[in-house]
Design goal:
Layout: E1 6-9, E2 23-28, H1 32-40, E3 46-52, E4 56-58, H2 63-67, H3 73-76, E5 77-79, H4 80-83, E6 90-94, E7 96-101, E8 106-110, E9 116-120, E10 123-126, E11 131-132, E12 144-145, H5 150-169, H6 173-179, E13 181-185, H7 189-205, E14 219-223, H8 235-248, E15 250-253, E16 257-262, E17 265-269, E18 275-279, E19 282-285, E20 289-290, H9 293-302, E21 312-313, E22 319-320, E23 323-328, E24 333-334, H10 342-360, E25 375-380, E26 383-388, E27 391-393, H11 395-409, H12 413-429, H13 445-453, H14 457-460
Parallel strand pairs: 1-9, 2-3, 2-10, 3-6, 10-23, 12-19, 13-14, 13-19, 14-15, 21-24
Antiparallel strand pairs: 4-5, 7-8, 8-9, 11-20, 16-17, 17-18, 22-23, 25-26, 26-27
Helix pairs in contact: 1-10, 5-6
The protein binds flavin-adenine dinucleotide (FAD).
Flavin-adenine dinucleotide binds near residues 30, 54, 97 and 345.
Length: about 475
């Protein structure tokens, strides 16, 4: 529960940089959009406060590799303070933004220990991303894990590797088969990558490690309501993806709508209208996104329109209608049907930062224009598909392009070197070194902060 104590920060900056009277910019979210906006706001007259509820910048496109034991969380996430340490006018604040008051030009944020902050701004950039959508069936979330955060990827790792362990000791053949069945919902890039990786780890990495089960017997079922996997890549690459998945042994179920999920499996309605039950020990959800609650709070406060997924519809300069001081960027913005991809978020972040700098210097600002540099999806080792303008290719050339693209955008030198070494080991020797998981949640974070705020009983009594 939130504590009543309120602390007000007013556009502070490190070492007093920015100075009193500096232009105060608050950025909500340190993902691709927020980070690139903060970098573009490098200016001694601008004091930036970057608020994120996580302490790190996360490279979401590689979450599936954390989930399936290839990379560690530190290889795809870098502390925001570290990434921005040379930006002396940027202050990083760990807090969850819960409300916006456009009249007072403030945002309200809640810290992990329950404290509330009020942050004043001259310009506000909201870059809070999106969250998993269960299309009105939030009850599925308990059994069908989504993948948006480090915590999600580690939870999936626990469930995937844990399923093989439970299959090994199951005495009932049906139960063993259920543990060895993995259902993935959504055949976009995330679902395709997850499905392919589970089959690859079953057929390669785990092949010789178990005594009672054959990990390569694991079934991976990939469901999608549409007609093709990776539909956004166009028919030619979709066909390549379908062939690649087939070669890996992934069972593709297209035209299939998930109607129920519980602890023991899923119910799916196929194209004929018939519903079938699939027992499965692990269900993973990669089928859609929606705006987080902060988007509703912003829309309620400003009257901003929202699209069907709840994202804020922005003007050509990425601001909220009637509020040139509030920008919404990245996955959370809705504009010209731009896709929710990292490249859009990065370009929007750079634009929003530059726009604020130009506007405060009285210079004219052009509308935002997105330059599509293409996209890539990983199928299996040595096989990826790439779509870049008229260029569409797959196979090993696609995999090389995928590798270069991901290395170029991985944040931090150490992460890049670490990732290359790890990929080399995974590629050459089927080694997945990041398979550690625990079977119990450790939920002490809030307790730790509570203890610091209120002396523990034994300390009050003078005991050591
Ligand atoms: C599994 C997965 C795979 C993907 N693969 C690809 C790919 O291959 N290629 C590609 O181009 N794109 C891919 N994407 C999409 C890409 O990652 C997103 O488009 C991009 O991250 C969007 O950037 P963003 O800054 O808008 O949001 P995010 O990166 O989601 O960042 C939002 C930030 O805001 C913070 N935040 C949220 N709410 C609050 C709040 N209330 N208060 C404070 N902080 C808050 C979050 O902690 C987070 O740090 C993938 C996404 C996922 C989930």
């Amino acid at each position: 529960m939130a504590r009543p104590h309120r602390l007000t920060l007013v556009g502070r900056s490190r070492d007093g940089a920015g100075g009193p009277g500096a232009h105060r910019v608050v950025i909500v979210g340190g993902g691709f959009a927020g980070l690139f906006a903060a970098r573009a706001l490098r200016d001694p007259t601008i004091a930036v406060t970057l608020v994120d509820r996580a302490q790190h910048h996360l490279f979401q496109p590689l979450l599936y590799q954390v989930a399936t034991g290839i990379l560690s969380e530190g290889q795809i996430a870098a502390p925001l303070r570290d990434v921005l340490k040379r930006h002396r006018t940027v202050d990083c604040v760990l807090a969850d933004v819960v409300d916006v008051d456009p009249q007072a030009c403030t945002v309200v944020a809640e810290r992990p220990n329950g404290e509330r902050l009020t942050l004043a701004y001259d310009d506000l950039i909201v870059a809070a991303g999106v969250r998993q959508s269960y299309f009105g069936h939030d009850e599925f979330a308990r059994y069908a894990l989504g993948m948006k955060t480090i915590a999600d990827a580690l939870a999936i790792r626990r469930r995937v590797f844990g399923a093989f362990e439970l299959a090994e000791t199951a005495t009932d053949p049906d139960e063993q088969r259920r543990w060895l069945t993995f259902a993935v919902v959504g055949a976009g890039p995330t679902g395709v990558e997850l499905a392919g990786q589970i089959r690859e780890l079953a057929t390669r990495t785990l092949r010789r490690e178990f005594h009672r089960i054959r990990p390569e017997d694991a079934r991976v079922l990939l469901f999608d309501a549409g007609k093709a996997p990776l539909a956004s890549f166009g028919p030619a690459l979709s066909a390549k993806a379908a062939a690649g998945l087939h070669a890996l042994g992934v069972e593709l179920h297209l035209g299939s709508v998930v109607t129920g999920v519980d602890a023991r499996g899923i119910d799916v309605r196929d194209g004929t209208g018939a519903t079938q039950r699939y027992p499965a020990g692990t269900v993973l959800w990669a089928a859609g996104v929606e705006a987080p609650p902060i988007a509703k709070a912003l829309a309620d406060a400003t009257g901003a329109p929202r699209d069907r997924a709840g994202r804020i519809e922005v003007e050509p300069d990425l601001t909220v209608p009637g509020h040139p001081e509030i920008s919404v960027i990245g996955d959370l913005m809705s504009r010209d049907h731009l896709p929710g991809v990292a490249e859009v978020a990065m370009q929007a972040g750079m634009y929003a930062g530059r726009r604020i700098r130009h506007r405060s210097a009285g210079r004219p600002v052009r509308p935002f224009r997105y330059h599509d540099l293409g996209s890539a999806a990983y199928l299996s080792r040595g096989n990826a598909v790439v779509s870049a303008g008229p260029l569409k290719f797959g196979g090993f050339a696609g995999w090389l392009a995928w590798l270069v693209l991901h290395l170029a955008f991985l944040t931090g030198y150490r992460n890049r070197v670490g990732a290359v070494l790890t990929w080399a080991a995974a590629f050459a020797r089927d080694a997945r070194r990041e398979r550690t998981f625990t079977t119990q949640e450790i939920e002490t974070l809030r307790d730790v902060y509570d203890d610091a705020a209120e002396p523990a009983e034994h300390a009050k009594e003078g005991r050591p």
